[in-house]
Amino acid sequence: MEPGRERFERTIAADERIEPRDWMPDAYRATLVRQIAQHAHSEIIGMQPEGSWITRAPSLRRKAILIAKVQDEAGHGLYLYGAAETLGVDRDELLDKLHSGRHKYSSIFNYPTPTWADVGAIGWLVDGAAITNQVPLCRCSYGPYARAMVRICKEESFHQRQGYELLLTLSRGTPEQHAMAQDAVDRWWWPSLMMFGPPDDASPRSARSMAWKIKRHSNDELRQRFVDICVDQAAALGLTLPDPDLRWNEERGHWDFGAIDWDEFHAVLRGEGPCNEERLTRRRRAHDEGAWVREAAAAYADKRAGVGAAA
Ligand code: FAQ
């Protein structure tokens, strides 16, 4: 075996980190670029569903919290694009792939947010699912991705709590507010379970990614962990989960849950979800409208470099 590959295999086996300058197989690099870029795209597209509520938040306190959360998501996108760049790809190229539909982003962000309770359901369920999926990524074998995930997870856990607290307030409010919270949970529950990806027997990438210790657990393992966590939390919130098949299984020590509509998941991935077109159109417009900021920043950087060279 050539020395680079041997060292790579040894590092993975010893649970140590691969760093940007280390030799790595082309397929390992490509898998990371794909996953990290999809993750980064999800963060910045994920700003839209809640972002639309900033101007309509019911109080100054709620508005300040929501602005901070959406801003955090932009920051997560930046850490993740930065981590992808350490693998030798260009950020412009990744954004171009997102804007032209050649790169995916999480299915969850193609669902609408018609009521204020959706902000709570996103925090509780979507951020909750994201944390369940992402805490193990803090131990990913690729150093820059693992380190970015540590900070992201800390922020996501604050996001999850604000969603939970928002839903709790609504659930304990007037009957109309309670109904609004229940309706949001009814709409977000199944799409949140889809965030974990296809079932293990239909997940083409899981086995390889787990062998490389990019992923530490399979999609179904993490989905089950999430369901187990949510059942008690839903009860504490005074809300129900929209699944008549949800039952404690003494033998397995887990909650059994009903069948996920994978046809819906694949339709959303094909671009046929309720908001796919709206999300991408808005993203492209934001990118075009931000061109002057990028140009100004580049001109400033060039000028500084010129000053540095002259000195
Ligand atoms: N949506 O073989 P697998 C967030 C694709 S961040 C869209 O199982 P893998 C924060 C998959 O990419 C949410 N596509 O693939 C926030 C692959 O496609 P490809 C994002 C999906 O990679 C909260 C194909 O299906 N989180 O929420 C989805 O082993 C609130 C086959 O699937 C991450 O990205 C899906 N749900 O496992 C922000 C975490 N599922 O590339 C704002 C990092 C699967 O072959 C507000 N990513 N696909 O064309 C991962 O952990 C993994 O990539 C999985 C998929 C688990 C998503």
Automatic annotation (TrEMBL):
Pfam families: PaaA_PaaC. InterPro entries: Aromatic_CoA_ox/epox (IPR052703), Ferritin-like (IPR012347), Ferritin-like_SF (IPR009078), PaaA (IPR011881), PaaA_PaaC (IPR007814). One of its GO terms (biological process) is phenylacetate catabolic process. GO terms for molecular function: phenylacetyl-CoA 1,2-epoxidase activity. One of its GO terms (cellular component) is cytosol. This is 1,2-phenylacetyl-CoA epoxidase subunit A.
